[in-house]
Amino acid sequence: MIYANYAATTPALSPGVTRELRSYLGETHLNAARNFEGLEAGAIALRARKALARLFGAESPLQVVFTSGATAGLNLVIQGLVRPGDHVLATMVEHNAVARPLEALRKTGIITVDWLPCDAEGFLDPQQVRQGIKKNTRLLILSHASNVLGTLLPVAECFSIAREQGVFTLLDAAQTAGVIPLTRELGADGIVFTGHKGLGALAGIGGLVLGEEVSQAMRPWIAGGTGSASASLDMPLFLPDKFEPGTQNTMGILSLAVSVEELLDIGVETIREQEKALTSRFISGLEALSNVRLYGPKEPDHRTAPVSLGIQGSDPGEVAGSLFEKHRIVTRSGLHCAPLAHKTAGTYPEGTVRFSFGRGSTEAEVDSTLEALATYGGGPTSGFRVPV
Ligand SMILES: Cc1ncc(COP(=O)(O)O)c(C=O)c1O
Prior knowledge:
With 388 residues, this protein is of the alpha/beta class. It has helices at residues 15-29, 37-56, 70-81, 96-107, 126-132, 155-164, 212-217, 250-266, 268-286, 316-327, 339-345, 363-373; strands at residues 2-3, 64-67, 87-91, 112-116, 137-143, 168-172, 190-194, 206-210, 292-295, 307-311, 329-330, 332-334, 352-355. The protein has a 7-stranded mixed β-sheet, sandwiched between helices.
């Protein structure tokens, strides 16, 4: 099988993660009473927070807050930060994890939202941010890279414009954490990540790194017990407890601790170079295929792994199904939970077939995928749609 769907989730855990999870289940968890489970869970969480703080350049491990994934992290900030009458800016390439919570607040009349236009390849002109900011703009949310087109957004420049005008900034790094170096220099008040993609951890764990100012401005979205300041009926005001009520997902957190430590050993720059080489090889190979159209940028420095394609005269869902049945190639077709990005690329509503190679992929797999793709298309129907 060829797995070309890393943008959705990572297919296999590293041996280190599997080993430590087994040992946790076999020893620590089964002997919870003897090992003072609470203490052990706290130690695991601190280990993960330290690794993640290094990965994201956070000053303190306590700035790392765990959630069930990027969706919960994005909602935590959106629901906790905006107030009635606020205005929020986001882009036309956002995932529904951003688009749906914002639209729900907009439709109930609580906030106004502007979706900043990107060009057909997904590029955002930072001037759009400058022009889009209003007196009541509270928050700018940017996806670091489009999960449909692979396009990297000019986040540092956009965030600097927003922060100059007192607007909070939130980075959705679901597609880039563990693949592209991410540091505080990007200027984000919050960085949201998920475990099961580039970080190589379990599904159902993720979180955010929060700056001091934004964390003070946010209300806790979910309230409950934290094991701290228990005499008070109010949530503690300090991080991470303010945003981490309830029993934590210790297995998920352990998987993050181990996978991020491994990532730091390898170096995110090294992973980025490997990913760039594979994606460039794939995109160069596509040039020889007249039946295939690439949506999104070609230049490796301007993009990350997701490569969205249209196959002449063929339905994306049928191509993806056939790629799996005939060639055992796993891709993802349709709208990829990002309908606005497809409207931007001109591929709405039919979507595209998305290929994304990652850490476990090989050059031979890329070449076999190109060979398989050469056998598609060329049918009698209308051909490609032109981006609008
Ligand atoms: C850009 C982007 N944001 C957010 C998410 C949501 O991540 P999760 O499902 O882990 O909450 C995804 C997942 O596909 C994504 O690609």
